[in-house]
Structure formats: C-alpha cells, structure tokens
Design brief:
The chain is mainly alpha-helical. 59% of the residues lie in helices and 6% in strands. It has helices spanning 6-13, 17-41, 73-84, 88-96, 101-107, 118-139, and strands at 67-70, 110-113. It is globular.
Length: 140
C-alpha cells in the first residue's frame, strides 16, 4: 500500500551497520532540510521540534534550547515493545547506538522525566512553555 514497514526496516538496518549508515545518510539530511523549512515558515514565538536522534544526527545546532526527555531503560524497552513490537535484543541494539542517558542530559539544557503517564509528561511540557513564554516577554 505504499506505507513504510518500520518493523521490517528496523530488522534490516539494525542487523547491518553499513545499511544503517546508508539509511542515516539519506534520512538525516532530508529531516534537517524539512525541519529548517518548517521552522522558517512557522508563525510562532516558540517552535517545538521532536528529534529523537538530535545529537546522534548532528542536529543539536538547530535548536536554541535542547530538552532531554528521559525514562528508565526498562520502561523505554517495554514501551518500544508495546508500541512497535521491538524485541528486547533489538531494543538493546538500538540503545547501544545512541548516547547514554548521562551524556544526553549533559548536552541538554533541560531534562524532563517521562516515567509516568502522558498526562504527567504534558504537565511538565506545559510548565516549560509557561517559563519560556515568560522569559520571552521579559526579553522584549
């Protein structure tokens, strides 16, 4: 049907480092261009981008403020299995290619903990938006 089979793609690229690098060489520049285009067109004081591989893709310079959303490893593993059917071994392989929690936190301006439900995460995001809106008003 023309839809991307994300599970099949993960099975292919996470078993072969060269294929993963080839995919990233295609995807990351295209994502950067599209994000730049969308941000340039945005008519807003604050633009929020969700970039799961922000540091790994070299896109950290696209943001003025970097928010690290962190959760316990076992919880992330369980969520990936429930959401995408990712096995424990595949999750471990994916996690091993990403920055560790401490490194992501050190490179970020803010860390938000996502160990609760979506309502708790939403409340944290809402509080950050209030803080940033207030700082923008003070700056002008």
């Amino acid at each position: 049907g023309g839809e991307l089979d994300r599970r099949a793609l993960k099975d292919i690229v996470f078993g072969d480092a060269a294929k993963l690098r080839a995919l990233e060489a295609i995807v990351h520049p295209a994502v950067r261009r599209e994000l730049g285009r969308l941000v340039a067109r945005a008519d807003a004081e604050i633009v929020v981008l969700e970039i799961p591989l922000l540091y790994e893709s070299g896109m950290e310079d696209i943001a003025d403020v970097r928010v690290n959303v962190s959760a316990a490893y076992d919880l992330r593993e369980r969520r990936a299995e429930e959401r995408d059917g990712i096995t424990r071994d595949t999750f471990a392989s994916i996690a091993a290619r990403q920055l560790g929690d401490d490194e992501r936190a050190a490179r970020s301006d803010v860390t938000v903990t996502n160990d609760g439900d979506s309502d708790a995460l939403y409340r944290q995001a809402e509080e950050l938006m209030k803080q940033w809106s207030h700082k923008l008003k003070q700056a002008y």
